[in-house]
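Sequence only, no structure available. Ideas?
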Amino acid sequence: MKKIVILFYVFCLAVLPVAASTPAVQEHLSRGRAFYERGRWTDARYELLKAREGFAGDDRMAEQEIDYLLAACGVELGREDAGRSLAEFRKRYPGSVYENDLRFAEASLLCSRGEYAWAREAFEGVDYRALDARGRERYDIRMGYVAFADGDYDAALRYLDRISPRSEYADHALYYKAYIAYARGDYAVARRDFGTLRTSQAYGPLAPYYLLQIEFRQGNYAYVTEHGEELVKRAVAEQRAPLERVLAESWFRQGDFNRTLACLDAYAQAGGETGRDENYLKGFSLYRTARYDEAQEPLRLACGADDALTQNASYHLADCYLRAGDKRQAMHAFAMASSGPFDAAIAEDALFNYGKLQYELGGGVFNEAINVLGRYLEKYPGSERSQTARELLVAAYYNSRNYDAAYEAIRQVRSPDAEIRAAMQKIAYFRGLEAFGRGEMSDAQRYLAESASVGVSPRYGALAAFWQGEIAFAQGDMQTAAGKYADYLRRAPRSEREYALASYNLGYCALERGDTKGAADRFTQFLALHTAPDDYRADALNRLGDTHYAERRFEQAIRNYEAAAATGRLGRHYAAYKRAVTLGVLGRTQQKIDALKEIVRAGEGDYADDAAYELGRTYIGQEQYRSAVETLEGYIAAYPRSPDYAAALSDLGLAYLNLGDRRKSLACYDRVVAEAPKSSQARDALQGIRDIYVGDGNVDGYFAYAERTGVESDLSQMARDSLSFAAAQRLYLSGRTEDAARSLRGYLKSYPDGFYTADALYYLSDSYLKTGEREPAIEALTELASHENTKYTAAALRKLAGMTYEDKRWAEAASAYRRLADAVQPRSEKEEAMTRYVRATVGTGDAGAVVRMADDVAGYEAAGQTAWREAQFAKANVLLTRGEKAAALDLFRILSADVSHPEGAESMYRVIAAAAERGEQERAEKMIYAFADKNPPQAYWLARSFILLGDIYVQRGDKFQARATYQSVADGYGPAGDGIVEEARAKIEQLN
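Reply:
I predicted one. Tokens follow.
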């Protein structure tokens, strides 16, 4: 309702009559005073200015009156200099007899400027009792208005009630009192007072308008439609729109929807603002007149706050969408209608249809179908549609691929029947598999145990046992693993894929406990069941070959290795190498050599280096020293980080020695001593060096060499070194761990450069681990790892890296894993080491180290996809924190190509958010829907993207779509405690 502001033109101040200095001045002052009292401010000011011009003399009172009345006229006329005039008067006449009137004038000036708080304070400084009767009325009307404007109706009434019905301000006071009654809903009083004001010159035109509004508010719609049109005809422009609005709703209430639409058109043409209420009136009227397509847009615009209007509008909007065949938009509309507590019948029907449409459209991005249908059954268990809802819910559970969300939803069912429990068993099982795939073994074990405990489905009960066996196997608990696999085989049909794999895994369990015959039986069973030429079959053939080899059934072993090689799978390289070795055992040396040469020539797989070294040793065994030299030289050049590198150099020295090339032989032995000085290979090399010098009759030359290189030349000392280590080694091998550790420490102290330093450090670290002395073990492993190219290098780094990683000693772990990647040969081991290198570096929190690590990983050919992805993601985040947004975004774009991993999912969100931040809303919207279509397992970043999508719709002014988007997250997103659902609900609340 438009507030009518009354300008006050008739407020006068009490003055004291004084004599002017001349008759002319007195006449002007007298006329000015009279005009002022009658409210003719302009005329009063003119006469007072004349009086001021002619004023001369020392009549201080007359001068004060003239100046005061001039200042007061300025207030009433709204002159810009009014405030300055009052201030000058106060300064010129301190302690003036007009002080109280001056305060009143200052308060009136503040009131006219709309500064009501200051005006109220100023009025309160006026001495009300010192004012005359007319002055008090002016005080009351103005203070009443100030309180009215401030919304303090009780205070306003106290002042307005003091205005006499015969006062010149009576109509003003009555109008404000009538309006207060109207605003408070006291329509009887408002009707009486506005009825009185019908004859008022000032308020007569307004009174019928308010009387019409009162009838409207009291539901007398027939009165409104009967009298409203006549009011519209004679209404001024600014009154026409409100009147048309009231008429529109009155026709609506009486069910005349065509006239409603006509009045709404007139309302819009008159400049009326179309808000949610008006859109609802229009949309529902169009709906009731079967103009469903036209009804959609106004009904959409009527939706917004979580109130009865939204519930009603969205419910009918859903029907419009269904009639148009747009199920998705209908689903969004039903979602809004279902959330409100305002109309119970609408809420129930909308919730059912919301869940049904979610199911028909695929279940929702966040398993909304499960949550919504579950909520329906919980709220309306006695509904005639509960059976249909339950059938849909069970189907939604079975069709779900977001197992985390489905699991959280199904756990909320209070009294699940057999079908729901069967669905829960399946979902818990698949959730366990997802956790297993992520390496989260404890979570996987918990979910699988829960699945098994449900016990409704024999199939999933058996499968849970199988995967519990897989977990135990991965954790090294072979006894438990074997029990679970055996349990599975007793319960599962032979047609299941896992049936064959259980036999395969039982074969490994048998190998672990040294039961080669049992292993052979299990691998044979697997091969009979699993005929596909894949990696599993190739590996089983290799393991079967290994069991035959261990049992010295070499011909059978060769047949198995040849079958494994023929599969063409990953195990073919191992099979080829083991076949060659087995041929040698059978004495088919030339066949062995040919087989090894073929492996070396191909240069493929993890056993090319082993084949090259074995070929060189075979040539030496056959006294084909030139071939041995050629092969071992190639091996040393190609595999400088091989654990057999020092041994190969020593063998090469022997080959050169047998060819009579003592110089090259000596050079090879020298390299062994230089590169692996504290190893048993160095000791053997020194023996060879000594033999060469002595054979040449140059004993002094040997001692000079020993002195120059710093190696032990005292043969008796070397013997003591050997004996001392041998004694410690015997203690270690006999299981006397503490005694062994003490003896090994003594050896290392006595022979800091001994030939068995590497062996001693390895045994010592293992002894510490057995006695639970973790820190000394790490120190020993660290020292051992610092000696490169020993046969323990890879094993030491593997243990050292694992222990420091577990202890969160990130910098040490990162260094160890990086060196381990170079020390191991199988690509899978390199990839695992590089992945841990990445994670340990990130754990340090050193931004510079993270960037260097990421660049290192990017240039490492065998790093693997996991290490590369995590490294680049870590680098992108560092760049982002440094403010290098463009560079970070380039990496996020690359990573976002694969959203199946957490890094890719978050990267996709970052790219989407950057597009939205640049104002590329359409592009961001398309990317969000494409993100959803990929069904990423990481629901968190997809949910954040949908909240961002809702924000985009808000910026476009599409509150309906924004609400629907936020609602989908609030209704469907499962994980609790991460703030997503709370944020979505807060966004909905903000729309209110």
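The chain has 53 helices and no strands.
Hope that gets you unstuck.
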